[in-house]
Amino acid sequence: MIRIGTRDSVLALWQANKVKALLEAEEHVCSIVKIKSKGDLILDKPLYEIGITGVFTKTLDSALLRNEIDIAVHSMKDVPTLLPKGLVEFAVLERENPFDVLVKGPGGSNVIATGSLRRKAQWLHRYPNHEIVGIRGNINTRMKKLASSDYVGAIFAKSGLMRTNILPKTAEVLDWMVPAPAQGALVIVGKSDDMALNKIVNKLNHHDSHLAVSIERAFLKTLEGGCSAPIGALAIVQGNKVRFTGIVNSLDGHTELKIEKTSEDARVELGDLYAQELLMSGGKELMKEIKSMADEK
Which among 40, 61, 78, 194 is annotated as catalytic? Predict the structure, then answer.
């Protein structure tokens, strides 16, 4: 019996059940174990104010290490770039659409809702006269809050709305907005010493998706970002080729540094190299400014 750990939100359960179905198709017996995360329990603060990395993953990681579950399924964008000692990535499923969408609200104001620093900063860089307000809760809760507001709209990950089958036909794909590193990808994490289970689960791994998100996460790690900095990254991998876009904004969106690269030698280390290039082109000063402002709060 493979015990699959997951948060108990609608989206998280969809993700866990997808992994369960894939493993059962390989004739493995599985069960779902629901666990509440700190990120699910604290809903009155933006994620960047809660003050810890892995706010949605830490509880599941602890359950793995205590042998309460065998694997954990995460939205990979929520996973810290450094996993806890004793845990490793078993597999990354084929990535779904990585972009954000704007779901239209009733209107009547100049307000856009998002709890993400990255979305806020990129939106304000493009639309400096708009006001940004925070919005928390699971996808259904946020959609209800939007419907009863006077907001222009709220920003969501397209993949989350597609998975839960609530993507409005009128939603606008924000293909100009650089997504969070690993957005749209699901990762399965397990114990590093469980080689037998790793071998079973790794059959679900999608090579190009895994490499793409690993490049993005290497970029994030070198910039020392996490959810406390407005960092976006997107790598498109096809065989040995990769197209990469990385971005860092000031918290108010006024300053934006962007890097766009192509390579015929796709490898994880490119993320680090591209981040270093961005740091040398003004990124170091911008990251210091971001961290200084975050410390003041």
Answer: 78
252 annotated active-site: no
Residues 6+ apart with CB under 8 A from 29: 1, 2
The 3-class secondary structure across the chain, one letter per residue, is CEEEEECCCHHHHHHHHHHHHHHHHCCCCEEEEECCCHHHHCCCCCHHHHCCCCCCCHHHHHHHHCCCCCEEEEEHHHCCCCCCCCEEEEEECCCCCCCEEEEECCCCCCEEECCCHHHHHHHHHHCCCCEEECCCCCHHHHHHHHHCCCCCEEEEEHHHHHHCCCCCCCCEEECCCCCCCCCCCEEEEEECCCHHHHHHHHHHCCHHHHHHHHHHHHHHHHHCCHHHCCEEEEEEEECCEEEEEEEEECCCCCCEEEEEEEECCCCCHHHHHHHHHHHHHHHHHHHHHHHHHHHHC
| Model pTM score | 0.91
Please work out, in degrees rounded to the nearest 5, the angle formed at the alpha carbon of residue 12 by the alpha carbons of 116 and 123: 20
- What does the pLDDT look like over 120-166, one tens digit per residue? 999 999 999 999 999 988 898 999 999 999 999 999 999 999 999 99
Choose among 97, 76, 93: nearest CA to 18.
93
Q: What is the pLDDT of residues 204-245, one digit of tens each?
A: 999 999 999 999 999 999 998 655 789 999 999 999 999 999
- Domains of the chain: residue spans and CATH: 2-93+185-205 (3.40.190.10), 100-174 (3.40.190.10), 215-296 (3.30.160.40)
